[in-house]
Specification:
The protein is built from four helices and nine strands; from the N terminus they run H-E-E-E-H-E-E-E-E-E-E-H-H. It has 201 residues and is an alpha+beta fold. Heme C binds next to strand 3, strand 4, strand 7, strand 8 and helix 3. The site of heme C has 21 residues, from strand 3, strand 4, strand 7, strand 8 and helix 3.
């Protein structure tokens, strides 16, 4: 009788231990599914959290479409400063493909006020355009599950104005962002503008 009770307790303990082990494995699996440690952070409502520390990321380039060259009304007259983290960039350089979780962050930066009709000014280095105030953030994120309808990339706007920017943002509708990237970019990214940095050894 006492042996039976002992055996029963041993089984209970074994079941409990196995249960804890299964629960722990599931927790690890869920965690692994949520992506790389450097990947995007999502709110419970599935909004993207504005990454921190991006001024220390790798700077890929800075297309510029000033008002002076766009009939005075460029949609984005600022420098388009594009940043990516070192980890996905390393994988891109090895494979030629942006890994899941890649965040491309574009911060808009106004040119300093112009002194000439074309918006240019003169500084010690010459006449031209020079970086001024920060003025907005757009982000694209690679997540082939979340954004399977737009070639695996989601698009987010954190405001087109001076900081502080929005802390989180919902994915933009296809026609607002992804559509133009689908039609005009290579695999959703305008890599051709960053190729000299992307391929720098
Ligand atoms: C009419 C076309 C068009 C639309 C609409 C558009 N983009 Fe882009 N986007 C571009 C082009 C062209 C570039 C690269 C050249 C540049 O920045 O001027 C770019 C660059 C980017 C980049 C830098 C990475 C890359 O792919 O080059 C991000 C991030 C980005 N766009 C996000 C967005 C977001 C977010 C929206 C919507 C709010 C959006 N874009 C709407 C054309 C577009």
């Amino acid at each position: 009788m006492s042996m039976n009770r002992f055996a029963g307790r041993a089984i209970q303990t074994a079941v409990l231990v196995a249960g804890i082990w299964v629960a722990a494995s599931v927790a690890i699996a869920v965690n692994a599914q949520s992506g790389p440690s450097w990947g995007p952070e999502w709110t419970a409502a599935d909004e993207l959290v504005l990454p921190r520390g991006y001024h220390a990321w790798v700077f890929l380039g800075s297309p510029l479409t000033p008002n002076a060259l766009n009939d005075g009304e460029a949609g984005f007259p600022e420098y388009h400063n594009v940043y990516v983290q070192a980890e996905p960039l390393k994988i891109y350089r090895e494979t030629g493909v942006w890994p899941e979780g890649t965040i491309l962050l574009k911060e808009l930066q106004l040119t300093l006020p112009g002194e000439n009709p074309d918006g240019s000014r003169v500084e010690a280095s010459g006449r031209g355009f020079f970086p001024g105030a920060r003025n907005g953030i757009d982000i694209s994120v690679k997540d082939s599950v979340r954004f399977k309808d737009t070639n695996g990339w989601g698009f987010f706007n954190f405001g087109h104005h001076a900081p502080p920017y929005a802390k989180t943002a919902a994915a933009m509708p296809t026609e607002a962002c992804a559509g133009c990237h689908i039609d005009n970019a290579t695999e959703m990214v305008f890599s051709k503008f960053y190729s000299h940095i992307l391929n720098a050894k």
